[in-house]
Model the fold of this input.
Amino acid sequence: MLPALGTNPIGINIDASVGGRNLDPIRPPKHCMVTCDHIYDSLYYFTRAWGVLTSIVLAGVGVDFIYHGRFPGYWLIAYAVTIFLVETLWVLTLFLKLTVRPDHRIWQIWKYCSLIDDWKKSPLYIFMGLMTMYKPYKLWLVYLAGGCTVLLGFLHLSMSMFHKILRRRKKKDHRSGQSDLDSLESRFEEITEVLDDGIPDPIPGSSVSLSDSLRPDHDSVLEI
Done:
């Protein structure tokens, strides 16, 4: 008959030795990180598209102001050009990476141009939006342009905060995964030590190993 599942052929109760260690259950994979990454990507692309749309609306309102002889229209066009350049700054950075060597002198100047990034755009955009709605001149498109600009500032602020939260969580998960790997290696070493202690020693004065002693004798098999 086959031996019991809890005991192997050499008489070691593996379930008792290993089960008595109270091993912690394996944690289920966290799906929140994947979901948060997708949310951040969607927010990133939506903010970029919203920035270009805001610059177009501001430019349209500025042209309308200039057409009716109102001086603030030039300020609105300047706001539109500034927002468009800041929102498309990553395109210029990518173009420079593809065309200019990393040791070129232009990178020393370009790093100052790229200082306005992440949450630093938010105060500038909110200020532009409030100044746009300061004198609407009975034109409802002014409130639309100013509201789009203020919303763009809050979008950049929320995206920056979301990015910082994601970085902290990823660092925390990396540390916990490293500790789980270390604990798994230590448990493996404990189990191997238990198995080594439970294996019986060979008969003293005999050159027959344990594996040879477990093999049946051919003569005894023939007699049976």
In short: The chain has a mean pLDDT of 74. The CA atoms of residues 60 and 96 lie 31 Å apart.
